[in-house]
Amino acid sequence: MLQEAGVEARIVPRLDDLISGLGEDVAFALMTEETLRSADLRLLSEWIKAQPSWSDLPFIILTARGGGPERNPAAGRLSELLGNVSFIERPFHATTFVSVARSSMRGRRRQYEARNRIEEVREGQRRLQVALEAGRLGAWEFNLADNMLTTSQTCREIFGRAATDNFTYEDLLHMVHSEDLEAMQAAVGHSIETGSEYAITYRIVRSDGSIRAVETRAQLDRDRDGRPVKLVGVSADITDRMQAEAQQRHLHVMLEERVVERTRELEETHQQMLAEVSQRERAEEQLRQAQKMEMIGQLTGGVAHDFNNLLMAVLGNLELLRKHVQGDARAARLIDGAYQGAQRGASLTQRLLAFARRQDLQVGPVNLGTLVADMQGLLQQSVGSAIVIDVQIPGHLPPVLADANQIELALLNLVVNARDAMQNGGAIRVDLHEAEQPSSTGGLACGHYVVLSVIDQGVGMDAETLQKAIEPFFSTKELGKGTGLGLSMVHGLALQLEGELKLASAPGKGTTAQLWIPVSATDVPQPEQAAAAETTTTSAPRRILLVDDDALIAMSSADMLTDLGHEVMEVYSGKEALTLLDGGEAFDLMITDYSMPGMTGGELVKAVRARFPTMPIVMASGYADLPPGTEIDVARLGKPYSQEQLALVLSKLM
Predict the structure, then answer these.
(1) CA distances from 309 to 480, 593, 621, 624, 642 (A)
(2) Measured between alpha carbons, how far is 236 from 423 in angstroms, rounded to an integer?
(3) Domain annotation covers residue 311
(4) I need a surface site. Which of 180, 210, 490, 602 has the fewest CB within 10 A?
(5) Using one digit for the tens of pLDDT, what is the confidence trace for 583-607?
(6) Looking at residue 272, what is its pLDDT?
(7) Of 91, 122, 153, which closes a domain?
(8) Does 214 share its domain with 109?
(9) Which helix (H) or strand (E) holds 188?
(10) What's the CATH number where 610 sits?
């Protein structure tokens, strides 16, 4: 399964072999729970603890009782030991396994990226240290909590101390010339109190009695709550400069320029030091956020796909059952209620699939100006009379590469969100304009885009809320008044179209949502002439081979086909299907699921086409994009599908 997913794997028979094979080139380790039950895990624990700071190797454990502590107490102990661990309960679905494996691969790649960033920071620190030593600048830090003074070797040399000598803040105060001590301490206190730059020149008396002049500059570092933490700065021995100024007054101008240059160097050096710290924190925070969203997306997509399969069986059976209760009003009402509830569930899974970027898109050139203009009436009805929809459409816009139906749904979601944020009424502006992305930043590639903006005058969002706005199920609305999937659906759609959703908001200032969509390389096709006769959804009885590993879905689909008058043969794997065909069984058409253990629907289609090149084939799947290498020319039927949709596909094929 890993090889089919494009993951190179090496099998080892013992835990010792696993530990000896671990290294930075390993993306993740896959083990069974049984391997770890009686094994000595001390060496593995020591290896995990000895990982570099950037590394957190993912472990995948195949368990027979689930990963939760309530069902498998051993899982809790393994979680503490391994740290970054995912549990997969056997038997498992191949799709779930591959999804977890790929998620671990992506997480490991981000660790590699973090390693590179850390190495860049360390290299910057090394270059900074070289620059400090070359400029004879002594770096130091003064911790305000415990008065701990930390100094570089160059700084100690400036104060006449050896590298091995103990040098405390009290030692420094004792060295300051008695005439300069009060001014020096006052400058320190003023910087701590006001946050202003600490800059002073004072004299020191070394242990050998020599007097030296020291120039010191520093800035106050604060914690996240704004509390002063430490002074970070540099010192330079300027004795020679001071003596030169006293001896050679005629060089006054030259010396002033030197002071200015030295000051600039100190400022740049200090800013670089403050940047060993902020750059690393930003990189770590971005890595954590990206890993969290990636894991949420994988989990959401997998759950939605499995739920889609369940809804397929529910909707199909309800549709057939409705035909058998004609004349029974109460039974028909109950079935209609259940059918509507299942349809709402299907709509919910579509939003989940949109967030996970697995929805099935019909992408082509779309005229956004025409689309928005045609929706203006619907948008106005959706927000009510207390809110005005102000649509701004330029005279000419290039077509975009998108799915028109999904763009309509995204626009409606954005407008409804804007309406809910404007309890006192007002205006919502829907704007279209062209934009150029000059370089790749964030998730947006450089290129030409059309931007669809929805701007409201609502309550707005603070920075914390704005950061969580696109997460699935996050909502600021009252309980029962929102699923929390609107913005996450739009975000997933934007990424699937290789665009981006950008949000800007502030409390009391309203919210601006921008959907960036790439411009299409082809024009919008002209509408074809209406056909002389409508396409019929009926066809003559056929003998159909139905392949699906899920018995519930196979039974529901077979019942719908039988109800349409066709003869159906059900099998539950690609191998069974080929056995029937090779045994001489003749069929007019084959319908197959894609995700099946042993042999995928894509592999089955290729095998059948090799035997029967002209046989019509329908691929039924809940996935938006099939994996690479499955580019096959067959009819697609998205799950869950109705009997009418099934009949229409058969009619077109036959």
Answers:
(1) 26, 11, 9, 14, 13
(2) 62
(3) no
(4) 210
(5) 999 999 999 988 888 899 989 999 9
(6) 77
(7) 122
(8) no
(9) helix 181-194
(10) 3.40.50.2300
- What percent of the chain shows pLDDT beyond 70? 80
Buried b / exposed e along 622-635 (16+ C-beta atoms within 10 A): bbbebeeebeeebe
Instruction: Say if residue 100 is in the same domain as residue 167.
Output: no
Distances (CA, A) of 180 to 150, 168, 186, 218: 22, 19, 10, 18
Question: Kind of pairing, strands 511-518 and 447-455?
Answer: antiparallel
Burial 213-249 (b: 16+ CB within 10 A, else e): bbbbbbbbbeeeeeeeebbbbbbbbbbebbeebeeee
Q: Mark whether 488 and 581 lie in a shared domain.
A: no
Beta strands in 134-270 (DSSP E): 138-143, 148-151, 198-205, 211-222, 228-237
Structure confidence at residue 122 as a pLDDT band (50, 70, 90): confident
Would you place residue 377 in the very low, low, confident or very high pLDDT band (cuts 50, 70, 90)?
Answer: confident
Q: What angle do CA 200, 204, 205 make, to 5 degrees?
A: 170
Do 493 and 583 belong together in one domain? no
Size of the chain, expressed as the number of residues it contains? 654
Domain containing 140 equals: 135-276
The answer to whether the CB of 397 falls within 8 A of the CB of 450 is yes
HSE, CB side, 13 Å, CA atoms: give it for residue 567.
7
Whether residue 178 is contained in a domain is answered as yes
Q: Rounded to an integer, what distance in angstroms lies between the CA atom of residue 592 and that of residue 548?
A: 6
pLDDT of residue 518 exceeding 80, the answer is yes
Comparing 183 with 478, the larger pLDDT belongs to: 183
Rounded Cα gap, residues 55 and 529, in angstroms = 61
| Cα atoms in the 13 Å half-sphere on the side-chain side of 8 | 2
Residue at 347 is within a domain: no
Burial 53-84 (b: 16+ CB within 10 A, else e): ebbbbbbbbbbeeebeeeebeebeebbeebeb
- Are residues 139 and 118 part of one domain? no
Q: Does residue 553 sit in the same domain as residue 482?
A: no
* 31 and 151 within one domain: no
Which pair of structure tokens corresponds to residue 647?
A: 């009949």
Peptide bond into 91 cis (omega under 30): yes
Q: What percent of the chain has pLDDT over 90?
A: 20
pLDDT digits (tens, 9 = 90+) for 69-82: 566 677 777 888 88
**What share of residues in the chain are helix, strand, coil (percent, to 5)?**
45, 20, 35
* Mean pLDDT confidence for 459-471: 80
Nearest by Cα to 431 from 406, 405, 411: 411
Does residue 510 sit in the same domain as residue 574? no
Spell out the residues 6+ positions from residue 370 whose beta carbon is closer than 8 angstroms to its own. Answer: none
| CB-count exposure of residue 361 (10 Å: 0-12, 13-18, 19+) | middle
> Whose CA is closest to 256, among 245, 267, 240, 266?
245
- Domain count of the fold of the chain: 4
Q: Which residue has the higher pLDDT, 220 or 273?
A: 220
Q: Using an 8 Å Cβ cutoff, are 441 and 402 in contact?
A: no
Residue of 317, 388, 383 lying closest to 558 (CA atoms): 317
Residue 534: pLDDT over 50:
no
Omega of the bond leading into 399 within 30 degrees of 0 (cis): no
Asked whether residue 53 carries a pLDDT value surpassing 50, the answer given is: yes
Q: Return the SS3 of 212.
A: strand
